[in-house]
């Protein structure tokens, strides 16, 4: 059926699609954003970030002001391939820390392709709302 609709045949279409996808994922300047989740607990926050195929030697976790930055690179080994679906490249993600997060005592652990960052919380008194007067012009 496809041959009737597409004169180049099924194998040529598949090859063209595969080549287009390969080029799309091999863009040198592209930065991948890892999937993550942030959960809130009474005394800490837990940030979980998926980084399959990366080890501690390929990852960096650092503070930049009020942001927690996770950066790394998954490098491709040069070899003959018959199938290439794994995505390689640089990962980068910056997370704005909540106001009650402590910058001291942050811990990071990597297990089974998931980076877990434990961010301690400090008890702060709740700030009352501040009313701002509106001036008439």
UniProtKB/TrEMBL annotation:
Metal-binding listed as a keyword: no
The UniProt entry, under Gene3D superfamilies, shows: 2.60.40.790
UniProt keyword annotations, A-Z: Stress response
Report domain SHSP positions. 26-137
Protein name as it appears in the record: Small heat shock protein, HSP20 family
Q: Does the keyword Lipid biosynthesis apply?
A: no
The record's section on InterPro entries has:
A-crystallin/Hsp20_dom, HSP20-like_chaperone, HSP21-like
Q: Tell me, which GO biological process terms does this entry list? A: response to heat
Which species expresses this protein natively? Thermus thermophilus (strain ATCC 27634 / DSM 579 / HB8)
Family affiliation = Belongs to the small heat shock protein (HSP20) family.
